[in-house]
Design a protein that fits this description.
By secondary structure, the protein is α+β, with helices and mostly antiparallel strands. It has one domain (28-123): OB fold (Dihydrolipoamide Acetyltransferase, E2P) (Beta Barrel). Helices cover 22% and strands 34% of the residues. The protein has helices at residues 2-19, 24-27, 74-79; strands at residues 39-49, 56-61, 66-70, 92-99, 107-116, 121-124. A hairpin with a 6-residue loop joins β1 (39-49) and β2. Residues 10-28 have low confidence and may be disordered.
Length: 130
C-alpha cells in the first residue's frame, strides 16, 4: 500500500519540477554579454557589496557614467586570494570585462581584470570561452 502511494507522489513531483521555470537561467543569462569583446572602464568605486551570489560594486567613470559590476562569488574570490574588503568606496580602479550591448543598462560582468593604480593591486583571470 505504501509503495503505491509513493510512486504517484514521485511522478507528480517530477512533473511539477519540469513545469516550473528555473531561476538559474535568468540569473545566469549571459548570452547578452560578449565575453570575447572586452570593455575597459576607469573610475572611482562608489559602492561595494561583499555578498553571494556575486560581489557587486559600482564604478563611476571620470565622465560621470556609472557602471554596475558583477564579480565572482565570495568562495571563488577566496580561492583566488582576494581578501574580503580589498575594494573600498573611493578606490580608483580600472576594470575589464564583458558589457551588455545596450548602453542604457551599463552593466559589466565576466570580469577579466581589476587594477588599482594607487598601490598596484591587481586581480585577473583569462577570458573564458574565447
Amino acid at each position: 500500500m505504501c509503495r503505491r502511494a509513493i510512486v504517484p507522489a514521485a511522478a507528480t513531483m517530477a512533473l511539477i519540477m519540469l513545469a516550473t521555470p528555473s531561476i538559474a537561467p535568468a540569473h545566469h543569462s549571459i548570452a547578452r554579454f560578449d565575453r570575447c569583446h572586452l570593455f575597459t572602464v576607469a573610475g572611482e568605486v562608489a559602492r561595494v557589496s561583499w555578498h553571494n551570489p556575486h560581489v557587486e560594486f559600482t564604478v563611476q567613470s571620470s565622465g560621470g557614467t556609472t557602471y554596475d559590476v558583477l564579480w565572482l562569488n565570495l568562495q571563488q574570490l577566496k580561492r583566488d586570494g582576494v581578501e574580503l574588503g580589498v575594494l573600498k568606496v573611493g578606490d580608483r580602479v580600472e576594470i575589464t570585462g564583458a558589457k551588455q550591448p545596450e548602453d542604457n543598462l551599463r552593466m559589466i560582468t565576466l570580469l577579466t581584470g581589476i587594477w588599482r593604480p594607487s598601490d598596484g593591486w591587481r586581480w585577473s583571470r583569462p577570458p573564458q570561452g574565447c
